[in-house]
Amino acid sequence: MKEIVIKKSIEEADAMVIVEQKKTDPFKSLLSRPKKEDIRIDSLKLIYEGSLIVSGKYAADYFRKSSHTIDVDSNVQDVVIGDGTFTVRSKSGLEKAFVGNRGKNKIDLDLEEHVFVEGDDELTFDHNGLEVELPFKIDSKNIENFGKKILDENRSNVKKPDFPYDSAIDKLKIYLKKPLESDVRDLKDEFTLHDITEVYIPIFEARLSDLKKKVGIIRIDAVRKKVL
Asked: Do 149 and 195 belong to one domain?
């Protein structure tokens, strides 16, 4: 399993400015909005909230029933393939009217196809296990060079993904496993897990209170400078 940390693009002072601008939001209602001076900022801390990326491969090998139509000359009545004899399809009245008896005959071959399918992909889950797409690229420009050190130094403020990893793996299996036809035989399939990656996103979390001691929280995505 890998751990990566996304670089933040704002510092605590920048986050404090945003909190000051938005600090009445958690306390407003349809009928009222408190004054800014009535809201106190009790704390502001940087947390690292974990999302999860799982990647893998699914491969399947099976036989399925299938029908193929071939054209044969007008004087051919049937075709022998192996131990099977396939008779030409009867022409409809409309076909006879257009092409007569000289048009090509058609033969329906009820056969089996040997099918092999394979696919690689990944799924991303947010902190609570909901399937999402991260709003930023994960590349060298956005990743901290010493992510493990950052996490080790801030363990009390690190929130690991809050759901069973097995459930994420099961969802990836279902996603990769394409629906099969109803009539297959000798199915041999295999799922291979490639990677499990914990992606830690820096979030500034402010705790606020009003004159009645009601508590409010403002969370700021420190990558996109956005209130969550």
From this structure: yes
Residue with tokens 């990893």: 165
105 and 155 both lie in a single domain = no
Helix, strand, coil percent values for the chain (each to nearest 5): 20, 45, 30
Residue numbers of the domain that contains 69: 62-114
Domain total of the chain: 2
User: What is the pTM assigned to this prediction?
Assistant: 0.80
Chain segment 143-167, per-residue pLDDT in tens: 999 999 999 999 999 999 999 999 9
Instruction: Give, in degrees to the nearest 5, the angle at Cα 78 between 73 and 79.
Output: 90
Nearest to 24 by CA among 221, 154, 160, 209: 209
8 A C-beta contact, residue 49 and residue 159 = yes
Q: Which residues lie across from 40 on neighbouring strands?
A: 209
Task: Give 19: exposed, middle or buried? Use CB within 10 Å, 0-12, 13-18, 19+.
Answer: buried
